[in-house]
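#help-structures
NK: newbie question, is this the right format to request a structure? protein is Pseudouridine synthase I TruA alpha/beta domain-containing protein
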Amino acid sequence: MSGYYGEGEEAAAATPTVFSLKSEVASLRNRVKDLEAENARLSAQISNCRCKCDKIEEKLDASSVENANGECNHNPTSNKVNQSRTNSDYDGKSMNHHSRRYVALKVMYFGQRFYGFSSEAQMDPTVESEIFKALQKTMLLIGDKKEIQYSRCGRTDKGVSAVGQVIALFLRSKLKQSGTNNNTIGRIVEEQQDGEIDYVRVLNRVLPKDIRIMGWSPVPTDFSARFSCLSREYKYFFWSDNLNILDMETAGKKFVGEHDFRNFCKMDAVNVHNYIRHIISFEISPFNMSSDGHQLCVIKFKGTAFLWHQVRCMVAVLFMIGQGFESPDVIDALLDIDRTPRKPQYLMAPEIPLVLRSCEFGNLKFTCSTDAGQALRVHLENECRAYHLQAAIFYEALLSCLPLSNVTDSDLSGKGILHNGIVKKKVPHVPLMSRPTEPSYEERRTKLESMKGFAAESTSV
């Protein structure tokens, strides 16, 4: 019967279709497994990205719990990872999609272990290098050093401290930036500081204990920590001992006003051509601290700007006057450039007692959150106590010294005893105006020009 299949023939015809379906089902099952594996891989990537973002936000918002000392209770393993990061690991340009704002930071540091504030001296550690490490760890930097419009108020020297140093730069912000191009310095929408990143708390959690951010303030984009500063105040601490404070006050008041201070600085004839500076005020007063009958005093200089080592040179001459080696009139002679065109050779006062006390910027007001302020206060109190404990140990050693019989104070001064950090040796004092002198500014410039001419001739040959 043509046109009809028998039972055997129909089964034979259906067999290829079943095999085809089974093969397709197996293929689909394999495809499902592949898709499930791909889904698991993508889910893991998404989870990892979220984890990283959460960690970044945690750092930026300072949301982790602080202990009584203001230090963060992080996972120790996480700390090791953070500490192992180097400067080259951080690329501020990768943060360019975030908003940013121009801010000023008020900085305190104890300068004894630092090679000055500025990192341009190619010596480590510096205060500036430690601050930038902290900015990188907290991922607050956006862009490189040129793009953040960085400026600093002063470049304190090796060993010098500060409680009122000021820097300005662009930092990451929670506020929205006007305009769509985050690579340019746009106008930041002015809002209250509430809701902003707690810059003081975030940075102080990662800075070394001898550096602290004291406060922050939003500033306009044309602000410069250096050139917008109206005045700077330095303090120099010293033990009054047998110094004639009245003579020192008489001499110090001669500094007030506008003078050429080339005989009271370390001359930099290459970069500095104007040595006239304006001293606004001078004062010597007792400090609320004494030791074994010795009164601690402080000299305060306030001026619009200062030359390299100017304060330490002025203090050194004041000490000579206080000891009776020089008359207060020697200040007049050194300020008279026609009379004294070359600086007499003398040692500067030690750097450790010198502090940059404050920098004045008109209506600029530095603030910090209540939590950050409390943590800062606790930290500074603990540091004060730690240094008092160290002083107690040295004092205990002093009490344990064998008694010195038939030794007078004059004998001790001849043995190299320190007087305000300066070793006093039993040698005749040579009056300042009779000492060998350094080259004058004009002589230094002439030498520099001759060296340039010689180098040019050598190049042309």
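mod (FA): yep, format's fine, and the tokens are attached above. The longest strand covers residues 276-291.
NK: thank you!
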